[in-house]
Amino acid sequence: MKAPKFVSTTIERRYWRQLVVELQQQAVDVRQLDSYALGLLVCNLATIEECRADIRERGSHIQMAGDRGHMVSKRNPSLELLKEAQQQVKFYLSQFNMTPSSRGKVLITGLVSEDGWDEV
Question: Distance (Å, rounded) from C-alpha 90 to C-alpha 29?
Fold first, then answer.
């Protein structure tokens, strides 16, 4: 499956390759039309990775010049971006049956998994 053009950074392409392989191994019926949703998922995964790196480097609060020129401590903007990207990832993972609850929905409708976990 070919990635959409907006999947362009090294990190995004790495996530793309990993997820396509994982979905194929799990026999998820992913088609080229799904590439945009999968692309948005990998972009959000890359955003999470970048935000976490920024938070590790600069901390959860950063020093910046306030409106009167004094240095003030403000919440790192990466924290809010991280939160938003995590919500998007959770949404897209469920769309591809990659969360425990989304796989549970499949079991409830009568489809049985091949790995034996439905018998536990």
Answer: 19
pTM: 0.78
pLDDT band at 80 (very low <50, low <70, confident <90, very high): very high
Q: Which helix (H) or strand (E) holds 58?
A: helix 35-58
The full set of domain ranges for the chain reads 10-112
Q: What is the secondary structure of 21-43 as a DSSP string?
A: HHHHHTT----GGGHHHHHHHHH
**Helix 35-58 and helix 77-95, axial crossing angle in degrees, nearest 10:** 150
Residues in a beta bridge with 75:
61
Q: What number of other Cβ atoms are within 10 A of residue 51's Cβ?
A: 21
DSSP state of 60: S
43's CB contacts (< 8 A; 6+ apart) are: 6, 7, 12
